[in-house]
Amino acid sequence: xxxxxxxxxxxxxxxxxxxxxxxxxxxxxxxxxxxxxxxxxxxxxxxxxxxxxxxxxxxxxxxxxxxxxxxxxxxxxxxxxxxxxxxxxxxxxxxxxxxxxxxxxxxxxxxxxxxxxxxxxxxxxxxxxxxxxxxxxxxxxxxxxxxxxxxxxxxxxxxxxxxxxxxxxxxxxxxxxxxxxxxxxxxxxxxxxxxxxxxxxxxxxxxxxxxxxxxxxxxxxxxxxxxxxxxxxxxxxxxxxxxxxxxxxxxxxxxxxxxxxxxxxxxx
Length: 268
Description:
This protein has 268 residues and is mostly helical. It has helices at residues 6-25, 29-52, 68-94, 106-127, 136-147, 205-228, 243-261, and strands at 153-155, 162-165, 171-174, 177-178. The protein has a domain at 136-185. A four-stranded antiparallel β-sheet has the order 1-2-3-4, with helices on one face. Helix 1 runs antiparallel to helix 2 (29-52). It starts with 5 loop residues before the first helix and ends in a 7-residue tail after the last helix.
């Protein structure tokens, strides 16, 4: 549960101050870039820790599950914002003319738009499945596979579409959407599992494909960004992404959302 305190307020403020100090003081742009990327990631960690009590809290959604759409949006936000901020702070430190005039290529805006669309589209798709009445037998089997123990699910009320653990009364499904009782039950394996009572214990190939595409493209872009900062030459823009890779990522996102839209649970 939420454990936000003054410690988290101070932590976020300290990280923001450290971002400015590092970008201003450290002359090695590559070193500054690495430190700024780590500090931006630390912002998400501190906020997630304060709200959910877990270091990985920023990756956990309202179902108490880790999601691929959150992961990729955070990764691209850190990379793009970190690169831009490093250049701007170094320009300010060296007294460059118009220091914030660092161009962000159109491909990066499209990339962030695609990632944001997935983050918004996933809950909308699942929202339509919350009203389905699914097989309690199948839901039982799925939760038992996830937990590794015998679990009995039952409707929260005679006409309810919510399924709860008969023993603990903890919510385990809303319609066809499998949920977890608390944030501490989230797992990194959720990034690769299905979302429904019919497939939450199995590999979702669409998620695996999107994860691989995102990881490869993010790594390639991080290396390109790091190489751009070598030497002392002026840099006026962040590196652009190849349009072919952007198209592949867009297709992978479309497949990810389409797979999520298909029903994977037996109806009651």
